[in-house]
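Batch manifest, entry 17 of 40.
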Amino acid sequence: MSDDRAPHGASITMRGLVKRYGSVTAVDAIDLDARPGEFLTLLGPSGSGKTTTLNMIAGFVDVTEGELSIDGSPVTDLPPYKRDIGMVFQHYALFPHMSVADNVEYPLKQRSIGKSQRAKMVADALTMVGLEHLARRKPKELSGGQQQRVALARAVVYNPRVLLMDEPLGALDKKLRDTLQLEIKRIHADLGTTFVYVTHDQDEALVLSDRVAVFNDGRIQQIGTPSDLYEHPNSLFVAQFVGESSLFRGTLDGSRVQAHGRTLTATRGALPDSRTVAVVVRPERIAIHAGDAEPQADNAVPGHVIQQIYFGNARKVEVRLDDGSTVLVRESAGAALAPVHADDTVWLTFRREDASVLAVDETQPAPRTPTTATN
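Output type: structure tokens
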């Protein structure tokens, strides 16, 4: 891109942000900051409020209550075209009758930038996304991944302070998504622009983000680095939505949990007020032991194998516990894997340092990662 590109993006501040549609509250009094140059992801299931929040930042959706500012300047009542924000949509939104170069040039014409400067900025943007050799083609002559690269070039060509991305990889196959995730991460590092990215894909959020805000029911459940969310979830919802978790449900007795006829201990998380709790462990932190003999370990729970699934680089074993619930164990193929078969009796063990005690809300169903990209 051009040499005068700003090295850092803008800060975004949201205070008490509310969006209502009649009697329905889509976003419920959220406080959220995006730091200059940060890659912030809004993660959550369909209908959680993440896309509505993004559209309020863009100015596409009016704010019902609260304040929104960019670099300290209020923009709550400012129209979208005055906010200096780039936008990338899931379905590209390219002009089909224009060439790749003309699509990228369009926002520069809207800003009355001179022809010679436009040509250089377009060339730089297309080089950044690796499409300089396809400048004269029409969108219909490109693959889905190439079209999304054009959309990204168009969004960054005029050097916006903020770039918003709404499920930009949702329409692509997994291999292409994985490739473009790395490209987006590289482009963010090169530009220093503030990225705000919406996705329902937990893996995508963990790969791309400096920080992640987990949404549910119009509220932010937890904000933190990918490592914070994965290692130290503050609720059962976050534990189950951000990565896989195995739950050992029981009751809290002092600082210990009585579950499955055993006493379990955990060192992560503050002890909840609720007596109905779950000891939560990531599947790769659980060891599986074949046979009836109880292993010597801090936490040992018996069960029966339902099935095992082979992934090449790992295997996943599904185990039924005595209350009928199931847990997962994930083991690397490089480990000395104990042979197990359906209906085998096994023992599951885990370290207290790898476990969190979290409250269980019996009125709420367990969260499920959705397969659609709507919100």
